[in-house]
Amino acid sequence: MDPKNITADQRQRAEDNLRRGRLKLLERQPFLAYGAMRLNLVADDSIPTLCTDGQKILFNPAYVWFTEAPGMFNYDLAVSEVSHETLHAILGHCR
């Protein structure tokens, strides 16, 4: 997952896919989605997957991009990843 191997368009689509996963979370778990919507998504090539500082969710665009199935993004994975990071923020693990 070398970040140099993905294009600017792929980086943007990776972020869009996480945003769509966050919206899917809104349908499934509104309380958790409220917390997720308050965290900005920020691309960061220096981390291997995703993390949070309690204010934002940082994500590696190459990791998100390469978790796609051919032709479609696995929204369940996006929901899971965003939920995981949101719970860290909600539960105060970032203090």
Description:
The chain is mainly alpha-helical. The chain has helices at residues 8-28, 30-37, 61-65, 75-90, and strands at residues 40-43, 50-52, 56-59. It has a three-stranded mixed β-sheet. Strand 2 and strand 3 (56-59) form a beta hairpin.
Summarize the structure.
The protein is mostly helical and 95 residues long. Helices cover 53% and strands 12% of the residues. The protein is built from 4 helices and 3 strands; from the N terminus they run ααβββαα.
Structural class: mainly alpha
Q: Tell me the total number of β-strands.
A: 3
Give a quick account of the main beta sheet: strands, pairing sense, barrel closure: 3 strands, mixed
Report the portion of residues in β strands.
Answer: 5-15%
Total count of helical runs of at least 4 residues: 4
User: What is the radius of gyration computed over CA atoms, rounded to a whole number of angstroms?
Assistant: 13 Å
Distance between the termini: 30 Å
Secondary structure: helix percent? 40-55%
The parts where pLDDT drops under 50 for at least 5 residues are none
List the main descriptive attributes of the protein structure presented here.
3-stranded mixed beta sheet, 3 strands, 95 residues, 4 helices, mainly alpha, single chain
